[in-house]
Amino acid sequence: MIGFFDSGFGGLTILRSVVELLPDYDYCYLGDNARVPYGNRSQAIVFEFTKEAVDFLFRKGCPLIIIACNTSSAKALRRIQQEYLPVLYPSRRVLGVIRPSVEEVVEQGCLKVGILATEGVVASEAYITEIKKLSPTVEIYQEACPLLVPIVEAGEQDGEATDLIIAKYLRRLFSQDKDIDTLLLACTHYPILRRHFERLVPRQVIILEQGPIVARKLKDYLIRHPEIEQRISQGGTRIFLTTDASTRFDRLALTFFGEPVASHLVSLS
Ligand code: DGL
């Protein structure tokens, strides 16, 4: 079984694309809905929460976990990979969403990329660091969008205020003739707002969302790592777990995952 973790519902947008491309594997999705959002929390707290989730999914037997949350990927993944796994779970793997997204930006030959994300991701500068490692010449512009996750979590994406708020963030990002050629939606929740972005960003700008990117890169990863792939069960099952209010999860999950889900309430400790 492949474990998927997010701070809440958002990672379902990533899981959706992965399941479309790789339907045969078993998946276990864990949303920490009791403690969402992570986007404005400190590094220490995001690390603790993410570690608990990783532990939980390993206890469920996942040999591989995808951290679908950008904030956890930015603030906790490296420590988990470098300090935690080698000591406690040397034969298991945890992957995030930043590295595959950055590879895509570079492979697509983007010259000037705009990144929209949570405050925590923007402040961490994780995207800047990772892009510069692969291609030092790419120009990177970032804008934190603190209101977008609450709008989507509240199911208010089609409300009148949404376009105004997105337009405000885009004005800041696209100000001063930067000639941005690519816009990366670096947050689990933003694909739900894709139609709004399509309406509001300049026509020539390519919009990248992470679900299809992560799905393709995961497929490549599993081909390159048969020792992990062979340990993942293939029964086509999907398990949805949440740390809070499973009826609300089931309702909103339909928006994020695109099909009905039945979730189970769990405690991480
Ligand atoms: N999952 C988070 C991310 O992709 C967004 C929601 C949150 O702030 O927890 O950064």
Count of domain modules: 2
Structure classification: alpha/beta
What gap, in angstroms, lies between the N and C termini?
21 Å
Please name the CATH topology of the largest domain.
Rossmann fold
Q: If helices are DSSP runs of H or I spanning 4 or more residues, what is the number of helices?
A: 13
List the topology elements.
Layout: E1 2-6, H1 12-21, E2 27-31, H2 43-59, E3 64-67, H3 70-75, H4 77-88, E4 93-95, H5 98-107, E5 112-117, H6 119-124, H7 126-134, E6 139-144, H8 148-153, H9 161-173, E7 182-185, H10 194-200, E8 206-209, H11 210-224, H12 226-229, E9 238-242, H13 246-257, E10 263-265
Parallel strand pairs: 1-2, 1-3, 2-9, 3-4, 5-6, 5-7, 7-8, 9-10
Helix pairs in contact: 1-11, 5-7
The structure holds D-glutamic acid (DGL).
Give a quick summary of the entry.
The chain has 269 residues and is an alpha/beta fold.
Word description of this protein:
By secondary structure, the protein is of the alpha/beta class. The protein has two domains: 2-96 and 212-265, 3-Layer(aba) Sandwich (Rossmann fold), CATH 3.40.50.1860; 99-210, Rossmann fold (3-Layer(aba) Sandwich), CATH 3.40.50.1860. The protein contains 13 helices and ten strands. The strands form two sheets. A six-stranded parallel β-sheet has the order 4-3-1-2-9-10, with helices on both faces. Helix 13 (246-257) links the parallel strand 9 and strand 10 (263-265). Helix 5 (98-107) packs across helix 7 (126-134). It is globular, with a radius of gyration of 18 Å. The protein binds D-glutamic acid. Residues 6-8, 10, 36-39, 69-71, 118, 121, 149, 187-189 line the site of D-glutamic acid (DGL).
